[in-house]
Amino acid sequence: MSTTAAGGLHAHSRNTTRLAQRTSAWKPGIWPFLMPFLVLLAFGLWSYQPSKSPLSWVLTLVWSLPVIGVLVGIQGALLIRRRIRGSSKMVPPAPVEKDFLIVLVPTIGRHDTYPALERSVLSYVEHLPEYFPYMRVDVLTEEGCEAAAAIDRLGMSSRLIRVVTVPKPYRTPNGTRFKARANHYSHELRIAEREAQDNVWVLHMDDDTGVGPDTAAALAQFINRQRREHPDKAKHMAQGILTYPRENAVNLFTWLADAVRPADDIARFRALTGMGTPVAGVHGELLVLRASIEATIGWDFGPKAIVEDAQLALTFCRRYPGRSDWFNGRCYGASPATARDFVKQRERWAWGLVALCFNRTIPLRYRWFLGVCVATWILGPLQHIAAVLFVGWLTGDLNTSPVAQSVIVLWSLNFAYVIWTYWEGLRLNALVSLNGRRKWWEPMAVVALIPVFSVLEGLGGFRGFLKFVRREENKFVVIAKPA
């Protein structure tokens, strides 16, 4: 075990009791949304000047478009608050005695990703067995990868770890590549080993994302609950919350910028995945799926698939409507090491999601919401306030009011929601860190930097869109993973 990984794991272990207490009492805040909304609404109504200029028409459209996703996100946060109020009626978590858990961890196996892989895998071995006496960790890697020797040593460090190597000649029937190809190999292996059963669950994790005792407890509570449900109502898939402890960050700027990600989990994903229809997609971390259900879908989505988790979710919507859920468990990842990696990561996601939105093999009723969200994302650079003011200066029209005063309500909702996502996401990331608190200046800094973060998010999204339009060859870019 490396010194870095051991030190990080030991630090996390010291914090486990306090972490469980803090996260059990957490619920999304209302005032961080309500206060900005009221201030923005009052200012917007006061400063409104009627305008029918082309700029006003464009802004009325693009600045109002996000409201669909915003309303869904608000619904998700309110659902969490309601579930937490009723949590006293839920059965406390207990060990899962009748189901088998497979933790699947695909990795590209490079030297710069191995430290994070080791940290993550060791956290599974430490924390999950308390609630899962029957489990295994499958580290899924490519034959001949850089860090093969280190990964093999990691596999020998515990009887719970198995290294699964994807042979270089392996091809799927549809020619799927990258991570989806590896996932499909693992899926075929489970079928061959007769593990594609209803009582076998596959927990999909990324190679830089660990777990804690709170993760294990929440996951066990979800799986045990399915045995008490009627077979026609039991869930087959669930998603938890991806958070970023401060200790895993090597770059403070990108750590603050990634505050938006856990907020998305407690908002859109909670509303949609939690109500049985993951039409916004899912992420590849803390995604649990029955092995028998995964066996009916697989991962063979073709050579253009680079957001395989989102495509799996849309396929699941069509085949198993109403059978997904959300659980209040957290996993612990790490933000990109540099702003450049941050943009590259978003570029790959946008590239794959745009292609998925145009994928006609998936019915439009499952794609349209994702399409609206992606359109809002890739239009980010063009609707940034700096770009709008520059266009207004060039045209001699600096009036940015909408064509109707009532639109101010929608704009206030949208902008207040953005502030809430960064504020609440930062709160979550600080909550799962060692001291459990935000530093006094971090909330102010994250709000002040929202215009900068939106440039990076929008730049990555727009570059991904351009690559799709240019029909460039798909690439699954894997950034370096901080230890």
UniProtKB/TrEMBL annotation:
Signal peptide coordinates:
none
**Keywords from the UniProt entry:** Membrane, Transmembrane, Transmembrane helix
Where in this chain does the record put each Glycosyltransferase 2-like domain? 201-411
Coiled-coil parts of chain: none
InterPro entries in alphabetical order: B_mannosylTrfase_Bre-3/Egh (IPR027389), Glyco_trans_2-like (IPR001173)
Spans through the membrane: 30-49, 55-80, 368-391, 403-423, 444-466
Q: Does the keyword Membrane apply?
A: yes
In Swiss-Prot or TrEMBL terms, this protein is called Glycosyltransferase
Organism name: Actinomadura alba
